[in-house]
Amino acid sequence: MSAKYLHVGIPVTNKKPGMSYSDDLKLWMTDPEAHDFKIEYLRFEEGTPFPEIMHKNPHIAYEVDDMDTYLAEADQIIFAPRAVSPEMTIAFIIKDDTIMELITFRSSS
């Protein structure tokens, strides 16, 4: 099992410069790689599949090599695994009173 820190996600109510929109997720977001402190700002729109708890609380994102193990150890799964691109699957859990995003990447080869 291996987890690598990627970013912290912070919900906001106003759009930030550089935000992109995901129609599928009904979500505005910034690229954490463009921020020195690896911050991803999130603005949730009506109809987003993300639960209300995420609209008002930050999360910590990790790249994991075995999502199933982390899901099994979670106190609660609040957003079940979902492929957001052919290369990336995400899920959100609560562990030790903290919202965590689990991300797995698949190689294109």
Describe this structure in words.
An 8-stranded mixed β-sheet has the order 2-3-4-1-5-8-7-6. The protein is mainly beta and 109 residues long. It contains 2 helices and 8 strands; from the N terminus they run E-E-E-E-H-E-H-E-E-E. The protein has helices at 52-56, 67-73; strands at residues 3-11, 20-22, 27-29, 39-44, 59-64, 76-85, 88-95, 98-105. Strand 2 (20-22) and strand 3 form a beta hairpin. It has a single domain, classed as 2,3-Dihydroxybiphenyl 1,2-Dioxygenase, domain 1 (Roll). The protein is 11% helix and 49% strand.
Question: What's the structural blueprint in terms of helices and strands?
Answer:
Elements: E1 3-11, E2 20-22, E3 27-29, E4 39-44, H1 52-56, E5 59-64, H2 67-73, E6 76-85, E7 88-95, E8 98-105
Instruction: Please give the CATH class.
Output: Alpha Beta
What is the fold named in CATH at topology level?
2,3-Dihydroxybiphenyl 1,2-Dioxygenase, domain 1
How would you classify the helix and strand content by structural class?
Answer: mainly beta
Strand order, largest beta sheet: 2-3-4-1-5-8-7-6
- How many extended strands? 8
Computed Rg: 13 Å
Instruction: Specify the biggest β-sheet.
Output: 8 strands, mixed
The CATH architecture can be given as: Roll
Shape: globular
CATH superfamily label: 2,3-Dihydroxybiphenyl 1,2-Dioxygenase, domain 1
Total number of helical segments? 2
- Beta-strand residue fraction: over 45%
- Helical content stands at 10-25%
Order of helices and strands: EEEEHEHEEE
Count of all domains: 1
**Overall pLDDT score:** 95
Low-confidence stretches: none
CA-CA gap between termini? 23 Å
